[in-house]
Write a structure and sequence with these properties.
The chain is built from 9 helices and 8 strands. It has 272 residues and is α/β, with parallel strands linked by helices. The protein has an 8-stranded mixed beta sheet, sandwiched between helices. It is globular and about 55 Å long. 40% of the residues are buried.
């Protein structure tokens, strides 16, 4: 009798684990602006219920990365999706720097991320369809992209973060194919000046965005992150700033994303 009960319990637990396993979806999304299909990974919380609304965090990859990057850097984010009951969206953006390029019509990733992708995710999944339930963060190029998109689209994103972000592009005019998206600095200085994150703080009023910035002390982007932190502080714009020993690599980002998602979870809980 006891043996039969134990067997039944094992079968029940096994069945529950199967039903409630976290899900990683690979989607083909559509950008009408670029007339292109674009892949994205979406991580769904454990025991996802369509009747419940979930917050969403958009995780942006860095230069030379793609939509699979975050799962490779830290597979634990699947567990964090379950723990925090949030949807994680990892889109592909090539080496776009997340701008709408003024010179390349096939690189309109500001529009794709902030409008087209968000709409498709909201239509497919049971999300909180407001800035109170939507956040964005990323690494390196994606750290720049996350702050850039959040600053320009505060009606879409309520919280934003950056990990080792290129938050001021001007010291690196020859770096990472940026000129392919916005032209050479010498020929197009206005775009470089107005579309670098540190020069966009006039768009942010104190308390309008929840912000977290993280960069290692040995990172080549460290000083521009310190400069951004100092400028935010001078403007009395609340933000978390994390600085610890580390370089520009996956080991650093695998740790940094844990703090970012904890920050986003706390933001969502306050807003709910």
């Amino acid at each position: 009798m006891i043996k039969n009960i134990l067997s039944s319990l094992i079968l029940l637990v096994g069945s529950m684990s199967f039903v409630c396993a976290g899900t990683v979806d690979t989607l083909i999304t559509r950008s009408p602006t670029m007339n292109e299909d674009i892949k994205a990974i979406v991580i769904i919380p454990e025991c996802y219920e369509p009747e419940q609304q979930y917050p969403a965090v958009y995780l942006l990859h860095g230069y030379s990365g793609d939509y699979r990057g975050w799962l490779n850097i830290n597979p634990e984010i699947k567990d964090l999706s379950d723990q925090y009951q949030m949807i994680l969206v990892c889109p592909d953006a090539k080496n776009s720097w997340y701008w709408d390029s003024p010179i390349n019509p096939k690189s309109q990733y500001e529009t794709y991320i902030s409008e087209e992708l968000v709409e498709q995710i909201d239509n497919r999944y049971s999300t909180i369809r407001s800035p109170e339930g939507r956040a964005i963060t990323g690494l390196s190029m994606g750290g720049h992209g996350a702050l850039y998109l959040a600053f320009k689209h505060q009606d879409v994103f309520g919280a934003a973060g950056s990990m080792s972000g290129g938050v001021d592009i001007r010291p690196f005019p020859a770096g990472w194919e940026m000129s392919k998206q916005i032209g050479e600095y010498a020929q197009n200085p206005d775009f470089w000046e107005t579309n670098t994150v540190i020069n966009m703080l006039d768009l942010v009023q104190p308390g309008t965005l929840a912000l977290i910035i993280d960069c290692g002390t040995e990172d080549f982007f460290y000083q521009v992150n310190v400069n951004l932190h100092n400028e935010l502080t001078e403007r009395k714009i609340p933000h978390d700033f994390i600085s610890r020993p580390g370089v520009h690599n996956s080991k650093y980002w695998a740790n940094a994303v844990l703090y970012q998602l904890l920050f986003m979870d706390r933001f969502f809980k306050v807003k709910s």
